[in-house]
Give the backbone structure.
Amino acid sequence: MYVSVLLDETSDVSCYSQLSTVIRYVNSNGAVCESFIRFSDVSKDHSAAAISDLVVKELKEFDCLNKLIAQTYDGPAVMSGELNGVQAKVKEHAPDAVFIHCYAHRLNLVLSQAASSNAKCNVFFFYLGWFVHFFYNIIKKNVFVG
């Protein structure tokens, strides 16, 4: 059995950066499966070294580092950098692990560009962003008591 690893990082409302780890594999019936591994707090260190160490540790924990043939992340240099990015550092431990830019992120970029060319979409997303900012500040100031 061979596996691929998918990583994505996002910040929650409390400003903690969380890295989600998913492993994709083919089961014994020949079906492609994805298994969510965990969320990891990467707030203190966003470096490629710290994230790659985390990935290698998780893959070793599930005994699949030697079975890793693909890795997919979004586009920032810390993740995709060919010399010092996470993908390069993981490749030091799993030389056959090909890096592929995440297609979901590519699709998001295309849709964002398409939506930004429409004035009504711009207004909608402006107000949507304002609501997020508004509620973030309320939560941050602990306005809700209860």
Q: What stands out?
A: The first helix runs from residue 48 to 61. Residues 3-101 form a domain with the Nucleotidyltransferase; domain 5 fold (CATH 3.30.420).
